[in-house]
Amino acid sequence: MAVYTPITHIEAQKLFKPIGEIKRLEGIKEGVENTNYLIYLNDSQKYILTIFEKRTKEIDLPYFNNLMKLFHKNGISCPLSVTVNNHNLFKIKDKPCCIYTFVEGRPIEDANKEQLVSLGKSVAHLHQSGKSSELFRKNMMLIPSWRHITESFSENNPKINSLEYKYILENINNLQDKFPINLRQINIHADLFKDNIFFLDNQVSGFIDFFFSCTDTVIYDLATFTNAWFFEGNKFVEDDYLIFIKSYLQEFKLTNEEKDNFNFYLKVSAIRFFLTRLYDLHFNKEGNVKHKNPIEFFEIFKFHEKNNIQDLF
């Protein structure tokens, strides 16, 4: 359970007083970044209370909330921040928090053909909407995060000297100066893992957890999605990927430059999640958190070194 900040019914009710009476609150097990509670009101309404922890900066919350509002206006089901007394940013236990509307549905593990087609259309719709705004937030989870994490390992934990880490460190040095500068920038989700996309009746019912959202290349978002959805036991599930990408490309056209950089961003995204998982494993000791295995993304990185799936476009 990713609950870093325990709260009581009384503490939550103070925040929810203008909205309604809380029947019960439940800590949400999924996720590793922030504390989330599912709030049930006496009138059967449900909300999500998110308490933001170290990695999510309070200064970024207006961007995240405005981006979700933009997506919602474009017909994408996603949480909306609730405004109480002209405010949608609050404090609880001296930490920033927001109240969000509830998105119906559940995540899935294994997608069937109908679900993959729906995924293609829905992710394409998300990207189409993301390019229609002037909202901007720099992606801090690539080079800035790489530098922070590698410096932390070097200064605070010299025992991080595994062969996998050394290999990734060498590749960071090779890749960090090769980011393309000519690709279009849009507002992306940047964390399209299976637990952040909900389904009802074989159709995507909504997207959640926009707290890594930023302005970056669409092909990076697509790369993160591909790494998260189409690898099982370190093997690429090509058939499922082909169903998804056919549906996606029918709705959203990629430029030749974006296609040509897909393999680069598949490796970049694998590095991002390898490093943050490794960092959390060694430094994120607070709360009741089930850490995810960084080696999964090391193996995905190695796959993209040997294989170029951009040839499947």
SSE layout and pairing:
Blueprint: H1 9-16, E1 22-27, E2 35-41, E3 46-51, H2 61-73, E4 90-92, E5 95-101, H3 113-130, H4 143-156, H5 163-175, E6 185-188, E7 197-200, E8 203-207, E9 214-217, H6 218-229, E10 231-232, E11 235-236, H7 238-251, H8 256-260, H9 262-283, H10 295-306
Antiparallel strand pairs: 1-2, 2-3, 3-5, 4-5, 6-9, 7-8, 10-11
Molecular structure report:
The protein is an alpha+beta fold and 313 residues long. It is built from 10 helices and 11 strands. The protein has helices spanning 9-16, 61-73, 113-130, 143-156, 163-175, 218-229, 238-251, 256-260, 262-283, 295-306; strands spanning 22-27, 35-41, 46-51, 90-92, 95-101, 185-188, 197-200, 203-207, 214-217, 231-232, 235-236. Helix 6 packs across helix 9 and helix 9 runs antiparallel to helix 10. The model has no long low-confidence stretch (mean pLDDT 93).
